[in-house]
Amino acid sequence: MKKMLVFVWFLIGSHLGYAQKENTWNGKTCAVVLTYDDAIDIDLDHVVPALDSAGLKGTFYLIGSSPVVTRRIDEWRKVAAEGYELGNHTLFHPCDGTKPGRSFVNAETDLSKYTVHRAVAEIRQNNVLLNAIDGKKERTFAYPCADLTINGVPFYPELRNEFVAARGVHGNLDSINKVNLDDMDCYSMNNQTGEYMISLVKKAMETHTLLVFLFHGVGGGHAINVSLGEHSKLIHFLQEHKKEIWVAPMVTVAAYVRENQTQR
């Protein structure tokens, strides 16, 4: 009799564990976050209409000094009011000019010439600007050029309490307990096909993990680009599988991860 009870409890426990794994992400099989960097016209002209048509929301990481922020501030305010996140991508997008392939970095925005104090101050100033646009206190951060340190010294620890999370650029699918909120993994897209992007989503669905996309140009507007048609294929797939896939801005998903990691 005891053996039978143990076996029954094993079956129940296994079933509940499987169900929990299946529905870890806000009741869905997986989570997908769409992020768009650098505050460019394409975000407002192409991306917002595409996501709106599918009933999806994402995160735009804004560089405070971008003229597109200044020139179209009312549109950014409207986008934020409609449920999109305006994330912090620093005030001037400084990158470490000492690394290979960084010929585009000029002396004024060379992170290797920054102090940690200066970097932190500029990021905080960008938060002030973003708050003036959207009135929100909670948001996420994205490292420009995936640079986490200044001459070997990490700068994000001084900002950890001011953001829900920070997004990096390492391509990986993470279970909820493996997500590193100080450096969230993501897949950077550059000329990939819709089929490839959908294959990543299907993998996230199979493994019950978090998938974060990083886009720059969509249908032009940036040297790093994905065609409008291929981006549309991804959006349509996400729309068709809304019952299985949780699509939300980074700040929403990161807050959910933080809460569930704490509980677990």
The number of distinct β-strands equals 12
CATH class: Alpha Beta
Q: Tally the helices.
A: 8
**CATH fold node name:** TIM Barrel
Q: Considering DSSP H and I runs of 4 or more, what fraction of the residues is helical?
A: 40-55%
How does the overall form come out from the CA principal axes? globular
Class computed from helices, strands and strand pairing: alpha/beta
**Named CATH architecture:** Alpha-Beta Barrel
Q: For the record, what is the CATH homologous superfamily label?
A: Glycoside hydrolase/deacetylase
Low-confidence stretches: 4-20
User: Gap between N and C termini, in Å?
Assistant: 33 Å
Query: What is the number of independent domains?
Result: 1
What percent of residues are in strands?
5-15%
Rg estimate, integer Å: 20 Å
The biggest beta sheet reads: 6 strands, parallel
If you average the pLDDT, what whole number results?
92
SSE series: HEHEHHEHEEEEEHEEEHEH
Keywords, please?
264 residues; alpha/beta; TIM Barrel; six-stranded parallel beta sheet; two-stranded parallel sheet; 15% strand
Question: Can you walk me through this structure?
Answer:
- By secondary structure, the chain is α/β, with parallel strands linked by helices.
- The chain has a single domain (28-263), classed as TIM Barrel.
- It has eight helices and twelve strands.
- Strands 1, 2, 3, 8, 9 and 12 form a six-stranded parallel sheet that branches. A two-stranded parallel ribbon has the order 4-7. Strands 5-6 form a two-stranded antiparallel sheet.
- Strand 1 (30-37), helix 2 and strand 2 form a beta-alpha-beta unit.
- The two termini are 33 Å apart.
